[in-house]
Amino acid sequence: MIDDYELIDSGGGRKYEKFGQVTLVRPCSQALWQPGNPSSWKKALATFDREDGNHWHGRNSLPNQWNITTAGIKFKLSGTDFGHLGIFPEQRDQWKWIKKTIGEAVQSGRKISALNLFAYSGGSTMASSLGGAEVCHLDASKGMVQWARENAALNGLKDKPIRWIVDDAHKFMAREARRNRKYDVVILDPPTFGRGANGEMYKIERDLATTFELVKGVMSDNPLFVLFSSHTPGLSQIVAENILRQQFPKAKVIESGEMLLEGKEVSCPSGVYCRAIF
């Protein structure tokens, strides 16, 4: 399988990555070790740092946008003012798992409806659709929803049953529950801090319990899985497992792990995931 992403090296609070033909150095707070080959980092096309604000160095060397393929999914990338590119490659294993798990359910004769919350540029949306699910993609940012639609088109999913929603996740789920619209799969990667489509404030330590209560209100009577991931510092695997065990006591399996940027020598932890499988 083609994979255009590579973690070349990491350390000193940074990571040296390759996205297709584009090489970048960006912050990585958990990379507290020393780089393996720091002299090679000078070859990077551009670097990004957050010292005294957000700054690109060499941004003019980057293409305005370019495409890569990873985990069997095509993505449009572009350097943003916050150092993001439109992809979180530490989610690659989750995308593969989503596609496989939904695909097996669909092949067994099930019709799967998936809800992807805080959906960013749509990696999990595309994995769900490629697996054969009907998908509802929700993000508070109109620009990110448009970006995700472009990614779907890149993957030949333009005419697949995907609903594109710009809204606050809590308000949307409350409406869906009132409409009695249910989902067999719910995927969510809530921000540590964020704002909804109309300026609603989201703080994970305050609002996560409400999020899961609303998730339960839109789950079908025969759910397939709930997949929760987080980049919030301090939210460990055990914390995630404790939350999902309490929220979904009927789950047959609760499994968790670290999301990793896997390098040839050293891997960078980049958040956690937890899955409740029914």
Written account of the structure:
The chain has six helices and 16 strands. The radius of gyration is 19 Å and the shape is globular. The chain is 27% helix and 31% strand. The mean pLDDT is 96. The protein folds into two domains: 5-77, Golgi alpha-mannosidase II (Immunoglobulin-like), CATH 2.60.40.1180; 89-277, 3-Layer(aba) Sandwich (Rossmann fold), CATH 3.40.50.150. The protein starts with a strand and ends with a strand. The longest helix has 16 residues, at 92-107. It has 278 residues and is an alpha/beta fold. It has helices spanning 92-107, 123-131, 142-154, 169-178, 204-218, 237-247; strands at 5-11, 14-19, 22-27, 46-49, 55-57, 66-70, 73-77, 113-117, 134-139, 162-166, 185-188, 193-195, 201-203, 225-230, 253-261, 268-277. A seven-stranded mixed β-sheet has the order 10-9-8-11-14-16-15, sandwiched between helices. It has a five-stranded mixed β-sheet with strand order 1-2-3-4-5, with no helix packed on it. A two-stranded antiparallel ribbon has the order 6-7.
From the spread of the alpha carbons, the general shape counts as globular
Write down how many β-strands occur, each being a DSSP E stretch of 2 or more residues.
Answer: 16
Low-confidence stretches at least 5 residues in length (pLDDT < 50)?
Answer: none
The ordered H/E elements are EEEEEEEHEHEHEHEEEHEHEE
Number of helices: 6
Helix percentage: 25-40%
Radius of gyration equals 19 Å
Can you identify the CATH superfamily of the largest domain? Vaccinia Virus protein VP39
Strand content: 25-35%
CATH architectural designation of the largest domain:
3-Layer(aba) Sandwich
Taking strands numbered 1, 2, ... along the chain, how are they ordered across the largest sheet?
A: 10-9-8-11-14-16-15
CATH topology of the largest domain: Rossmann fold
Q: What is the typical, i.e. mean, pLDDT? A: 96
Q: Largest sheet, if any?
A: 7 strands, mixed
CATH class of the largest domain: Alpha Beta
- Global structural class: alpha/beta
